[in-house]
C-alpha cells in the first residue's frame, strides 16, 4: 500500500461516516519486529485511525443581516467573542492611508467617557479587548474569563454598534502614529518586505499605499467615525462566540444588544490586478548593518486563484516554515547561508506576490541571491517529484485536525471563511481538493506561475560590504546594474500642531516634510 | 509600533512563567506524575475529547551551565537534536559512520586552529604558517563534508514529523532550560515517544560545523541586528558580575565560532541524562497509554555517571548604578533593570505584582504616565529575566517619542518606581494587579503547549508541576505595604542598570 492510497482511502471512509479524521500513515511492507524489541523507525509503528466528531458550529442570521457562528463548549474557561467585517486597510480612502488601522487603534464603546475609563473597566474584569485592521478584514475580539460574560457582551456590542467618536482619541493616535513613522525603518526585514512589495505591485497600488506625516496630521475624529459608519455594519459582519455559554441564551442576548444596529455597509472595493513589474536589481543602503535582507520574486497568485490548491501544495514543499522544505534544506541545511529561508507563489492576503526571502551575512549576499535564483529556476523548469508532493500532502492531511482542535479555533475558522464568502463545506472538503492535486498539475502550475527571467531582486544592508559583489557573473543573473533606492527620512517628522505637554522642539525641528521614494543609479 | 513592541517582547525568555501562574481550575486530580527508575520525570495532563496533544521534553540545562569559553553550547545541542539519530536521517549507518567521524574530527581541528589565530600575540611567521594550515584543513573539511552529506539524510527527522501532521515543531534554549516541543494528532503519541527518546539516547551530530554557521546567522539576526536584543544582552552582562546569567543563551560570537563537536558531545552526555529531564504531554490521550509509552521509550535512557553541577556564584552587593550606551541603527530605547531575589522568596512573588502594576498593559502606572499623560513614550513594558533557577532581575522598557529622549523617559520611569517605594498602592490597585496576573497565566495554560511548557518548568523548579496554583493563591496574601517595601528595596539607585540605545551619531543624554 502506498502513502497516497492510504490517505485517500481513510478520507473516503471518514467522509462517508461524517467524521473528520487524520488518517493513519501507510505502514511499510517490512516484516514486524519481535515484540520485545523497541521500534526504531516510524514505519514500524501502527497508528489507529483518529476518530473525532467536532460539534458543528450553530449558525444564525439576525434580522439586520449579521451572521452568527456559535460554538458552545463547557470545558472552555470563559468566552471568546469575534466580529469579522469585510473591510480593512484596502478600504482606506486614497487621501488617508492608515485610517482603518487608526480606527482599530482607537475603537471603544461610547458608554465610556474616556479611553482611560474603558481600560480600567477591562482591567477590573481581566477582559482583553483588541481590534485590528488586516488588508481585507476588520476584526474586533474580546476574550473574557469566567463570570463576566454579560459585561463582555455589552462592551463588545457597544464598541461595534455604538462607538465613541471622541476628539481626544484621534489626537492620541496622531501622537503615537507620528513616532511609529519616525521608526518605520528600524527593522531591516520590515523595510525589505515593504519596499519589495512596492517594487512588485507598484508604490501607489492599494496594497502598498503608505501613510506619510501629512496623513497623520490629517487624521480627525470625524474621519474615524466615517470609516466606522461605512464599514462596521451588520450586513458586512460575521460574529462568532466560543466558550462556556448556552447557545440559545447567547443568541438572544446578541439579538437584543445588536438591535438598532442598521445595515448599509459600503461595497468592498473592486481592485484591478496589478501590472507586472519591471525586472531589476535594487538595493537599499543601511551603513553599519551586520546583516543583509534579500527578497526575490515577481507577481504571484491571489487567494482566489483557480489553481489555489496546486499553489498551496507547492508553497508547503517549496518554502514553508518547515525545515524540511526545499529552501530550508538547501539554503540553511546544506549551505548554512541563513537561519531562515522562505518562499511562496502567493495566496497571501492581497494581490499575491511570488516572494522569496532570507537574511545572511553581507559577504554572502551574492551567493545567497544566486542560490535563491537557482531554486526559483529549478521550481519553474523541473518536474515536481511525486514523492515530494505526496510528503507535502501527507503533512497537510495528517495535520488537518488542528483546524478543529479547540472550540476557539473551530469558531475562528468558521467566521473567517464565512466572512470571505466561502461555501459552508469549504473547510470539510478542503483537504480532498488539496490531495487531488497531481504532480503533473503542480509542475504545470509552477511552470506557469514562476518566471526565472522576470525577477525583481532587492538587497538591503551595508552596501559597502556587498555592492561590488552584485555583478552578473557572481549572481548568475543579468538584471542590469544595481539601482539604489533612497528612503524618505522621517526621523525628524513633526506634527504641525502644538503639543504643550511635550518638551520644547529645538530650532532644527522643522515642519512636516514628505520625500517620496525614488530609484536612481549609483 | 505595536508591531515593534510585539517583536521585542517575543524575544524575551519565559516572560509569562516568570510571573507565576493562574487561579481557577488547576486540574490536580487529572495530573499523572511518575518518576522512572532512571530518574526521568513523566508528567501527563489528559484533556478528554481533544484530538491533539502537545509533547514537551525539557532538560534542566541552559547557558548557566556552560563552561567558560563554551557559551552557546546548550543552544547548539538544541539545534543538533534535529539532525537525526543512528536510525533516522540514515541511508546506511555503517557506511556513514567513518565519514561522520572524519568530518567531525577535521571540523574540530579546524575550529581549534582558527580560534588560536588572532587571540594571542604571535610572530608574523607563525601566523602565516597557521594560516596555511587553516587553508589546507578547510579544503579537507569541505571535501569530507560533501562525502558525508551524500551518505546521510540530515533533514529526515524534521520531514518525518511533518508528514505525520506535526504542528509547531520547535525547540528553545533559555539560560535555565532547553526544551523540545511538538503538537501532534492524538493517535501519534507513540511516534512522539520514539522520536524524542531516540534523539536523546542516540543523537548523531551530523554537520555540526555547518550548523554552527547557522547559529551565527541566528545571532546576527536576533541580537546584532536588533537594538532591543543588543540592549537586553548588555543589561544582563552589566547586572551580573560573576553569575552566568551575564552570558547570552545564544552565546558570544567568538565562542560560537570555536565550539567543537567533541565539547558538544561531552556537554550533552553530562546534561541530557534522564535524571535531568522532564517529559510532559497535555491533550487528548489516555493516562495509561502515556505512562506505558513513557516507561517503554524514555525508560531506556541510561543514567549518566557524572551529572550537572549547580552554579555556585554569589553576587557581591551592588556598588553603584551602571549605565551602558548602545548605538545601532534604529530609534532610541530606554531599558532599566534591577537585580532581585528569585523563586521561592516572598520578594519574587511580590515582584510579579510590581511588574503588573507598573507595566502590565495600558492602564498600568508607567503606561498612564509616560504614554498617556506626558506623551514621552509610545509604549512601555516590564518583565522578569533572564532566568528562573537563580536570583534574577526585573526589567522595564520604554520606547521614547521624539523629542523626548531616553533620559527623559528614564527620569519619568524612575519617578514612578520610586513613588511606589514611598507610597503603598491602594488595595483596589493591588487586587487588580493580582487578578490580571492570574488571568494572563490562565490564558497561557488554556492551550496545550502553554500548559505543557509551564508544567515542565515548574516540575524542574519546584518538583510540583502545578506549583503555579500555589503561587497564584499566594498573590492574594500580598499586602500593599509589602509591595511598597519590595519596590523601595529593589528599585534602589545603586541596584540598577540603565541601557540607552540611540542611533549612531545621536548621543544619548537629556535635553
In a nutshell, what does this entry contain?
By secondary structure, chain A is an alpha+beta fold.
Please give the count of helices of chain B. Answer: 18
Q: What is the number of E strands of chain A? A: 13
**Number of DSSP helices of chain A?**
17
User: How many beta-strand runs of chain B?
Assistant: 11
Beta-strand residue fraction of chain B: 15-25%
* Poorly predicted regions of chain B: 1-24
SSE string of chain A: HEEEHHEEHHHHHEHEEHHEEHHHHHEHEE
Largest interface: A-B, 83 and 89 residues
Label the structural class of chain B: alpha+beta
- Strand and helix order of chain B: HEEEHHHHEEHHHHHEHEEHHEEHHHHHE
* Global outline of chain B: globular
The biggest beta sheet of chain A, please? Answer: 7 strands, mixed
* Low-pLDDT regions of chain A: 1-29, 504-522
Radius of gyration of chain B: 24 Å
**Helical residue percent band of chain B:** 40-55%
Structure, described:
The complex is a heterodimer of chains A (522) and B (511). Chain A is an alpha+beta fold and 522 residues long. Chain A has helices at residues 3-17, 99-106, 115-125, 149-161, 167-182, 188-201, 213-218, 221-231, 247-257, 308-319, 326-334, 365-381, 386-399, 407-419, 426-435, 439-449, 472-475, and strands at 58-61, 67-72, 79-85, 128-133, 138-144, 237-243, 280-285, 292-299, 342-344, 353-360, 456-461, 483-486, 518-520. In chain A, a hairpin with a 5-residue loop joins strand 1 (58-61) and strand 2. In chain A, helix 2 (99-106) crosses helix 8 (221-231), helix 10 crosses helix 13 (386-399) and helix 10 (308-319) crosses helix 16. Chain A is globular and about 70 Å long. The relative contact order of chain A is 0.14. With 511 residues, chain B is α+β, with helices and mostly antiparallel strands. Helix content of chain B is 48%, strand content 15%. Chain B has helices at 2-10, 73-80, 93-116, 124-150, 156-163, 189-201, 208-224, 227-239, 253-258, 261-271, 287-298, 346-359, 365-373, 406-422, 427-446, 448-462, 467-475, 480-490; strands at 32-35, 41-46, 52-59, 167-173, 178-185, 277-283, 322-326, 333-340, 377-385, 392-400, 496-501. A six-stranded mixed β-sheet of chain B has the order 1-2-6-3-5-4, with helices on both faces. In chain B, strands 7-11-8-10-9 form a five-stranded mixed β-sheet, with helices on both faces. In chain B, helix 2 (73-80) packs across helix 10 (261-271), helix 3 runs antiparallel to helix 4 (124-150) and helix 14 (406-422) crosses helix 18 (480-490). The longest helix of chain B has 27 residues, at 124-150. The relative contact order of chain B is 0.18.
Amino acid at each position: 500500500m502506498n502513502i497516497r492510497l492510504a490517505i485517500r482511502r481513510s478520507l473516503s471512509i471518514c467522509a462517508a461516516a461524517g467524521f473528520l479524521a487524520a488518517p493513519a500513515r501507510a505502514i511499510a511492507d517490512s516484516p514486524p519486529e519481535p515484540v520485545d524489541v523497541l521500534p526504531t523507525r516510524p514505519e514500524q509503528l501502527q497508528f489507529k485511525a483518529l476518530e473525532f466528531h467536532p460539534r458543528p458550529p450553530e449558525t444564525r442570521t439576525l434580522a439586520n443581516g449579521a451572521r452568527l457562528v456559535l460554538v458552545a463548549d463547557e470545558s472552555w474557561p470563559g468566552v471568546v467573542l469575534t466580529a469579522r467585517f469585510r473591510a480593512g486597510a484596502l478600504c482606506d480612502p486614497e487621501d488617508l492611508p492608515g485610517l482603518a488601522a487608526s480606527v482599530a487603534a482607537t475603537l471603544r464603546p461610547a458608554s465610556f467617557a474616556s479611553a482611560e475609563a474603558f481600560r480600567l473597566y477591562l482591567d477590573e474584569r481581566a477582559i482583553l479587548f483588541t481590534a485590528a485592521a488586516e488588508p481585507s478584514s476588520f476584526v474586533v475580539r474580546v476574550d473574557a474569563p469566567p463570570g463576566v460574560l454579560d459585561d463582555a457582551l455589552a462592551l463588545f456590542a457597544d464598541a461595534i454598534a455604538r462607538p465613541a467618536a471622541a476628539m481626544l482619541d484621534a489626537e492620541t493616535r496622531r501622537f503615537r502614529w507620528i513616532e511609529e513613522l519616525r521608526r518605520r525603518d528600524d527593522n531591516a526585514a520590515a523595510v525589505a518586505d515593504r519596499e519589495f512589495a512596492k517594487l512588485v505591485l507598484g508604490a501607489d497600488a492599494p496594497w502598498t499605499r503608505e501613510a506619510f506625516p501629512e496623513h497623520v496630521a490629517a487624521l480627525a475624529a470625524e474621519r474615524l467615525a466615517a470609516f466606522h459608519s461605512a464599514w462596521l455594519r451588520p450586513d458586512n459582519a460575521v460574529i462568532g462566540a466560543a466558550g462556556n455559554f448556552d447557545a440559545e441564551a447567547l443568541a438572544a442576548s446578541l439579538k437584543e444588544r445588536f438591535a438598532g444596529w442598521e445595515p448599509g455597509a459600503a461595497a468592498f472595493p473592486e481592485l484591478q490586478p496589478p501590472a507586472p513589474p519591471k525586472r531589476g536589481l535594487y538595493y537599499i543602503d543601511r551603513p553599519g548593518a551586520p546583516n543583509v535582507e534579500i527578497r526575490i520574486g515577481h507577481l504571484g497568485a491571489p487567494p482566489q486563484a483557480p489553481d489555489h490548491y496546486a499553489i498551496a501544495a507547492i508553497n508547503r514543499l517549496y518554502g514553508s516554515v518547515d525545515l524540511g522544505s526545499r529552501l530550508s534544506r538547501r539554503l540553511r541545511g546544506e549551505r548554512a547561508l541563513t537561519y531562515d529561508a522562505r518562499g511562496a507563489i502567493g495566496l497571501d492576503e492581497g494581490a499575491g506576490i511570488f516572494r522569496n526571502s532570507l537574511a545572511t551575512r553581507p559577504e554572502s549576499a551574492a551567493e545567497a541571491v544566486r542560490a535563491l535564483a537557482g531554486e526559483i529556476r529549478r521550481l519553474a523548469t523541473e518536474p515536481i517529484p511525486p514523492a515530494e508532493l505526496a510528503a507535502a500532502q501527507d503533512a497537510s492531511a495528517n495535520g488537518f485536525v488542528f483546524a478543529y482542535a479547540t472550540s476557539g479555533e473551530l469558531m475562528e475558522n468558521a467566521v473567517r471563511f464565512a466572512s470571505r464568502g466561502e461555501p459552508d463545506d469549504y473547510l470539510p472538503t478542503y483537504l480532498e481538493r488539496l490531495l487531488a492535486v497531481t504532480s503533473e498539475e503542480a509542475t504545470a502550475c509552477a511552470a506557469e506561475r514562476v518566471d526565472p527571467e522576470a525577477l525583481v531582486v532587492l538587497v538591503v544592508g551595508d552596501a559597502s560590504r556587498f555592492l561590488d559583489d552584485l555583478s552578473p557573473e557572481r549572481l548568475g543573473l543579468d538584471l542590469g546594474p544595481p539601482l539604489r533606492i533612497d528612503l524618505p527620512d522621517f526621523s525628524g517628522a513633526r506634527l504641525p500642531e502644538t503639543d504643550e505637554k511635550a518638551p520644547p522642539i529645538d530650532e532644527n525641528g522643522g515642519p512636516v516634510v514628505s520625500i517620496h521614494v525614488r530609484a536612481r543609479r549609483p | 509600533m505595536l508591531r515593534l513592541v510585539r517583536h521585542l517582547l517575543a524575544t524575551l525568555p519565559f516572560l509569562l512563567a516568570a510571573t507565576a501562574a493562574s487561579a481557577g481550575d488547576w486540574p490536580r486530580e487529572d495530573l499523572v506524575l511518575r518518576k522512572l527508575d532512571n530518574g526521568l520525570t513523566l508528567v501527563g495532563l489528559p484533556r478528554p475529547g481533544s484530538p491533539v496533544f502537545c509533547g514537551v521534553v525539557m532538560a534542566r540545562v541552559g547557558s548557566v551551565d556552560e563552561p567558560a569559553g563554551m557559551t552557546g553550547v546548550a543552544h547548539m545541542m538544541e539545534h543538533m537534536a534535529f539532525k537525526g539519530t543512528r536510525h533516522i536521517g540514515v541511508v546506511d549507518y555503517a557506511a556513514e559512520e567513518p565519514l561522520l567521524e572524519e568530518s567531525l574530527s577535521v571540523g574540530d581541528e579546524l575550529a581549534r586552529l582558527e580560534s588560536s589565530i588572532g587571540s594571542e600575540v604571535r610572530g608574523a611567521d607563525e601566523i602565516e604558517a597557521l594560516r596555511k594550515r587553516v587553508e589546507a584543513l578547510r579544503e579537507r573539511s569541505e571535501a569530507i563534508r560533501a562525502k558525508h552529506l551524500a551518505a546521510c539524510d540530515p533533514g529526515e527527522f524534521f520531514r518525518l514529523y511533518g508528514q505525520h501532521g506535526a504542528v509547531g515543531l520547535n525547540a528553545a534554549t533559555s539560560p535555565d532550560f532547553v526544551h523540545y516541543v511538538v503538537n501532534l494528532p492524538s493517535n501519534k503519541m507513540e511516534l512522539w515517544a520514539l522520536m524524542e527518546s531516540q534523539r536523546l539516547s542516540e543523537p548523531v551530530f551530523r554537520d555540526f560545523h555547518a550548523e554552527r554557521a547557522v547559529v551565527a546567522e541566528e545571532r546576527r539576526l536576533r541580537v546584532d541586528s536588533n537594538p532591543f536584543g543588543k540592549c537586553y544582552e548588555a543589561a544582563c552582562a552589566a547586572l551580573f558580575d560573576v553569575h552566568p546569567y551575564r552570558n547570552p543563551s545564544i552565546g558570544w560570537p567568538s565562542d560560537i565560532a570555536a565550539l567543537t563537536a567533541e565539547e558538544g558531545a561531552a556537554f550533552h552526555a553530562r546534561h541530557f541524562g534522564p535524571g535531568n529531564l522532564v517529559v510532559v504531554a497535555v491533550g487528548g490521550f489516555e493516562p495509561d497509554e502515556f505512562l506505558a509509552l513513557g516507561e517503554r521509550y524514555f525508560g531506556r535512557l541510561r543514567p549518566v555517571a557524572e551529572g550537572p553541577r549547580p552554579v555556585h556564584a554569589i553576587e557581591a552587593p551592588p556598588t553603584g548604578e551602571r549605565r551602558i550606551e548602545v548605538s545601532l541603527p534604529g530609534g532610541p530605547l530606554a531599558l532599566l533593570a534591577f537585580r532581585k531575589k528569585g523563586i521561592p522568596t516572598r520578594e519574587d512573588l511580590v515582584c510579579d505584582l510590581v511588574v503588573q502594576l507598573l507595566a502590565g498593559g495600558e492602564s498600568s502606572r508607567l503606561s498612564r504616565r509616560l504614554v498617556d499623560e506626558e506623551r514621552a513614550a509610545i509604549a512601555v513594558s516590564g518583565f522578569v529575566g533572564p532566568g528562573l533557577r537563580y536570583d534574577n532581575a526585573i526589567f522595564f522598557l520604554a520606547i521614547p517619542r521624539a523629542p523626548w529622549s531616553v533620559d527623559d523617559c528614564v527620569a519619568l520611569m524612575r519617578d514612578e518606581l520610586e513613588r511606589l517605594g514611598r507610597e503603598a498602592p491602594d488595595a483596589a490597585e493591588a487586587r487588580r494587579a493580582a487578578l490580571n496576573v492570574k488571568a494572563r497565566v490562565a490564558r497561557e495554560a488554556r492551550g496545550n503547549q502553554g500548559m505543557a511548557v509551564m508544567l515542565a518548568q515548574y516540575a524542574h523548579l519546584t518538583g510540583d508541576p502545578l506549583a503555579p496554583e500555589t503561587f497564584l493563591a499566594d498573590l492574594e496574601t500580598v499586602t500593599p505595604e509589602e509591595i511598597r517595601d519590595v519596590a523601595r528595596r529593589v528599585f534602589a539607585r545603586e541596584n540598577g542598570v540603565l541601557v540607552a540605545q540611540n542611533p549612531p551619531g545621536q548621543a544619548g543624554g537629556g535635553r
